[in-house]
Amino acid sequence: MTGHAHNLRLLAYTTVFGVFWGMVEMLLGSYLHMIGFPLKGAVLAAIGAVILCVERTYTPVFRASLYTGAVAMLCKFISVGSARLSPALAIIIQSLMAELVLTGLGTRRSAFLLTGVLSGLEGVPHFLIGAYLRYGSGFYAASRDAADRLAKWLGWPEGLWIWLFIAWAGGHLLLGLLAGLLAIKTAGATGRGRRE
Amino acid sequence: MKGKFPVKTLAMVCFLVSLVLGMTPAGLFLGMAAAGLAWSRRNRHQGNKLLSWKFWLIPAIFILIIPFFAAEPNREIFGLGFSGPRLRQGAGFLFRAYLFLLVAGCLLSDLRLESVVAAAGRFHLPQVGLRLALALGITHSVHRSVVETWQIFRSQRAGIPASAREIHVYWGALLRNAARQAEETARLLYLRNIRLDRADPAGGIAPADIALPVLSPKSRDKVETAGPAEGNSLPDGGANPSGVGNNGAADRVHSVVEKYRGQGSSRSEHQHVRPRA
Q1: What are phi and psi for residue B80, nearest 5 degrees?
Q2: Between A136 and B94, whose confidence is greater?
């Protein structure tokens, strides 16, 4: 295949998969938001990881994941009626991480698994930094203090907030792992799977 | 003068300085100024969202609960210790959250994909413009593919557990369809000799060129009468209709391609971008 055809192919695949991802974010994201689904960010990140991994099997070159994420980010960023800054940032950060992993490790199963896990865990620092920006620096201390007092009032052991935090971060990790496994299985279903 | 006054820039500067100054009187004053400026430029949707009680319910409950569990209560309410400073601090959190959403929404409210495409053309970034124009062209068909494939997938499986067990089949079908559409688009771009390594001779495309109707009456008839695409079935033998209804999208991709068509093609129209093995 010539370089020109290769570039066109990269352009078409990353654009189509990026729109696909952006569309899933808009449709499913709105639905999950409406029903107040817990860990909805991690669920959407997991789906994004599957799309990024499978797309990479079609165009296994550097910058493919970044292009895909950029298109999805624009779709999400400019959703109908309102701009969604935080999810758009999450998409581009996730694409950057996927780009690093898939460029370094290729399209093997371990790379898919790692991409899924990193995508799932992205929501943890994203939430903490987002809360800091929105509510200010005193937010963490106030939340921790309130959780400790609530635990004391309910007669639960002290340090409950640590366990709540671990459970929440663990949920992200679990969803990331599932995303990695789904990416491997889906790549197999599309006929693009590769053994180690 | 109304259009020339940099209200949004001023709102952003006030907001950023208020972040630095924190909850001091000057910081609060600048925060209020940013809120006022941003509010004057809000759009209808954003205004409705920010005024919705549902949107603020959970943060407000959280802020009201915190003073009851503060370490240093200074009064009693309903027989429980209550901290006034904590309530003021919580109100500050809510104010900052409101300000953040208001200013961010104000800055981004006028941004549309079409305007980004036009800006890419103005800044001589034809690849960006082509990518965005393509994204606009295929959005409707991808949307249809996601929804229709889900409906067929669900209708062939009894209950949520069965669907969840075979969710990879749904994803596989969706991603195969996306890949097929991408391959067709790449082939079309190649046959029309779209060059990515030189500036667009037309100087970009205008938003009006992209905003074509989804389906012409003729192509709509085809959609309604067409059956499932051949060779496009789910692994379990179920028909996958996502190949149906791409005619309008194809029209729009063609219109995008025409705008980006290069000069002096000597390539045969029978050459194809070969699918990867």
Answers
A1: -115, 150
A2: B94
Query: d(Cα A87, Cα A96) in Å, to the nearest integer?
Result: 14
**Phi, psi (rounded to 5 degrees) for B188:** -65, -45
More confident residue, A123 or B201: A123
- Would you call A24 and B171 a contact, using CB atoms and an 8 Å cutoff? no
More confident residue, A50 or B167: A50
Is A166 in CB contact (< 8 Å) with chain B? no
ipTM of the complex: 0.81
Can you point out the beta strands (E) in A83-182?
A: none
Of residues A20, A51, A83, nearest to B111 (C-beta):
A83
B199 band by pLDDT with thresholds 50, 70 and 90: very low
Is A175 an 8 Å CB contact of chain B?
no
Which residue in B has a C-alpha nearest to residue A17's C-alpha?
B178
Give the orientation angle of helix B247-259 with respect to helix B167-191, to 10 degrees.
40
Rounded to two decimals, what is the model's pTM?
0.64
Residue A79 pLDDT:
58
User: What pLDDT does A194 receive?
Assistant: 60
Q: In terms of residues, how long is chain B? A: 277
Residue B261 sits at φ, ψ, to 5 deg, of -65, 130
For residue B75, report the phi and psi dihedrals to the nearest 5 degrees: -160, 175
* A20 interface with B at CB cutoff 8 Å: yes
Given a cut of 50, is residue B94 above it in pLDDT?
yes
Contact list in A for residue B22 (CB cut-off 8 A) is 136
Task: Tell me, yes or no, if B96 comes closer than 8 A to chain A by beta carbon.
Answer: yes
> Is the model more confident about A186 or about A68?
A68
- By CB neighbour count within 10 A (0-12 exposed, 13-18 middle, 19+ buried), where does B75 fall? exposed
Nearest to A146 among B66, B96, B172 (CB): B66
Q: Tokens 């581009």 identify what position?
A: A92
Gap from B171 CA to chain A (nearest CA, Å): 6
Closest CA to A26 of A98, A74, A64: A74
Residues from chain A that touch B172, judged by Cβ atoms under 8 A, are 186, 188-190
Determine the Cα–Cα distance for residues B8 and A52; give it in Å rounded to an integer.
35
Residue with tokens 């100024």: B33
DSSP letter for each residue of B39-64: HHT--HHHHHHHH-HHHHHHHHHHHH
Contacts of B169 in chain A (CB under 8 A): 189
Partner residue opposite A190 with nearest CB, options B97, B135, B172 = B172
Q: Give the residue from chain B lying closest to A21, CA to CA.
A: B142
The residue-averaged pLDDT of B166-172 equals 83
